[in-house]
């Protein structure tokens, strides 16, 4: 759908259930982050043992297949050492831990993939698509200083290594009024808007960036109904769009480009810097009004325990002094009550003290030094905790840092205590499918296990594992639309009799059936009857209300046994089924 204000968008053509995969897309181009090249394949972006390229000594590959298939590296290999040297000469503010190299290579790949102005990549959203004069004027401002520096370095190296930017592959994009520099800078800005961080499936860490054409049509909202996830399958990463709530036919699909837990002034400022637009979603518009600013959900993030606004907390959530002052002015106009300067000063001093301790905790002082720093950090945390609102974002950030410090100091009692609070906080801040739900639960489980509380750790780990398995499932095996009714799909591989007759019943040896059970507000009971040539067996699966993640239930019928695998839900079975508590599988033998 095309809108005069928002441009293109994707809308649902049917009712989409929460937990369903809506659409998936392969990257047109992708590139590993420079910080991840030591253990991430330059083509498929999987982590593991690599064989380094002997020519550039920078990028590595997981196998010969990936090395051979990486057509981009053929054009880039000789140019990379020159490009690194040229970018490093520009200073740390441009190089920025290798981000400049990553951006330059991704831009070069985009340009090499664009033979005509009408191709798919050229139609990607750009903040200056219809504003050539505004773009030319912006070239003279500090806002584009770093992209211009990267573009100049890229063009300079391309002059020495023509294969990096073959002339015919992109020069046709330049109009009679555009220079080579303007074209390259426009691509750098375009990829800043459209490129997505690709998260490694195991740790949800970002390993690189890619441009996914179909998914790039999905617009931003601070109240999204979808989120991006990644699955590797057999080759390149696949970006898929997971519905995090029910979506009605005709409703626009949206994702969040940032952290939805941040306050409105911070969300808007970050989007303006990263994506060149000011968010006008319904949530931002409401939270910017005088009534919206004073709502408990907004006010609590920057107030003390009595609900009085703390300037120190606004400063901590704003990108710069100007943004902080603007937010303070908005609260003043709304009639908010501000905390006394003495309390503000108390919070500022505690934050400064904590920041210095956090910087030193990973230093060379050894574990004794880390323990001392941790104890001082706990004092700073208590000082902040005594003043600010329990839902303050500063408190969440400080607790996160304290948990990391406690783990570094191997003080598992402290790590466990703080991780438990953080896990509960994450559940209140983010939706049930958010990767941070996994991370918080796994951190808590790790602390519990290190403290020796293995039973509690196992329970917490299983909660995280159930959600993780769901988030990492192949898009090809996730139904396009989950339903409350059993979704039964049967295959008759090596079958000598009929296939499935009704949901939950298999009458074929060698057939497989998969059932998707979505989250529900009520208890669900699913009964399976598996019929073999000379007998049958039935298992009943109870899915309790409030389950936070969808679960897969799979029945495989083999000549000698039936296996029913269930993720994270209670299983009751009738003979001849038996339950293996270790694997959570129900096994029946003839």
TrEMBL record:
Domain of life: Eukaryota
Cellular component annotations (GO), alphabetically ordered: nucleus
Occurrences of domain SET (ranges): 1-258
Region described as Disordered: spans on this chain: 481-503
Cell cycle listed as a keyword: no
Pfam family name, one: SET
Gene3D superfamilies: 1.10.220.160, 6.10.140.2220, SET domain
Designated name of the protein: SET domain-containing protein
Source organism of the structure: Noctiluca scintillans
């Amino acid at each position: 759908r095309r809108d005069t204000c928002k441009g293109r968008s994707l809308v649902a053509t049917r009712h989409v259930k929460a937990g369903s995969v809506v659409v998936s897309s392969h990257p047109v181009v992708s590139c590993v982050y420079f910080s991840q090249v030591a253990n991430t394949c330059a083509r498929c972006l999987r982590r593991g043992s690599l064989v380094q390229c002997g020519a550039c000594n920078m990028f590595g590959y997981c196998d010969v297949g990936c090395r051979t298939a990486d057509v981009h590296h053929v054009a880039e290999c000789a140019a990379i050492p020159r490009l690194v040297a040229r970018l490093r000469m520009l200073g740390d503010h441009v190089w920025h831990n290798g981000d400049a190299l990553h951006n330059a290579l991704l831009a070069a790949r985009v340009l090499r993939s664009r033979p005509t102005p009408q191709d798919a990549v050229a139609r990607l959203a750009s903040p200056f698509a219809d504003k050539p004069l505004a773009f030319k004027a912006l070239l003279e401002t500090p806002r584009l200083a770093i992209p211009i520096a990267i573009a100049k370095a890229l063009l300079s190296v391309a002059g020495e290594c023509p294969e990096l930017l073959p002339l015919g592959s992109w020069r046709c994009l330049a109009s009679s009024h555009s220079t080579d520099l303007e074209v390259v800078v426009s691509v750098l800005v375009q990829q800043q808007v459209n490129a997505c961080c690709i998260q490694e499936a195991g740790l949800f860490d970002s390993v690189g960036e890619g441009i996914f054409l179909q998914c790039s049509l999905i617009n931003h909202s601070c109240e999204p109904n979808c989120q991006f996830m990644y699955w590797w399958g057999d080759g390149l990463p696949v970006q898929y769009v997971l519905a995090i709530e029910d979506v009605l036919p005709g409703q626009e699909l949206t994702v969040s480009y940032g952290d939805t837990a941040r306050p409105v002034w911070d969300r808007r400022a970050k989007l303006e810097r990263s994506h060149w637009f000011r968010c006008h979603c319904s949530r931002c518009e409401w939270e910017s009004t005088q009534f919206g600013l004073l709502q408990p959900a907004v006010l609590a993030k920057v107030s003390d325990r009595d609900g009085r606004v703390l300037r120190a907390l606004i400063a901590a959530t704003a990108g710069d002094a100007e943004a902080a002052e603007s937010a303070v002015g908005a609260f003043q106009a709304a009639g908010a009550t501000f905390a006394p300067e003495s309390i503000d000063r108390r919070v500022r001093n505690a934050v400064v003290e904590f920041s210095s301790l956090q910087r030193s905790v990973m230093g060379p002082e050894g574990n004794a030094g880390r323990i001392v720093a941790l104890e001082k950090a706990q004092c700073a945390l208590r000082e902040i905790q005594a003043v600010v609102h329990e839902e303050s974002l500063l408190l969440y950030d400080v607790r996160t840092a304290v948990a990391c410090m406690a783990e570094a100091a191997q003080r598992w009692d402290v790590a466990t205590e703080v991780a438990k609070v953080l896990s509960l906080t994450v559940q209140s801040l983010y939706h049930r499918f958010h990767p941070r739900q996994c991370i918080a639960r796994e951190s808590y489980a790790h602390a519990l296990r290190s403290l020796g509380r293995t039973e509690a750790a196992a329970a917490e780990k299983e909660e995280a594992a159930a959600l993780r398995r769901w988030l990492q499932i192949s898009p090809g095996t996730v139904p396009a639309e989950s339903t409350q009714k059993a979704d039964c799909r049967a295959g008759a591989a090596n079958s000598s009799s009929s296939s499935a007759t009704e949901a939950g019943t298999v009458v074929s040896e060698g057939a497989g059936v998969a059932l998707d059970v979505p989250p529900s507000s009520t208890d669900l009971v699913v009964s399976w009857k598996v019929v073999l040539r000379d007998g049958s067996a039935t298992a009943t699966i109870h899915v309790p209300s409030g389950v936070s993640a969808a679960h897969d239930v799979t029945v495989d019928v083999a000549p000698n046994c039936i296996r029913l695998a269930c993720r994270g839900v209670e299983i009751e079975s009738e003979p001849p089924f038996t339950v293996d508590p270790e694997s959570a599988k129900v096994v029946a033998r003839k």
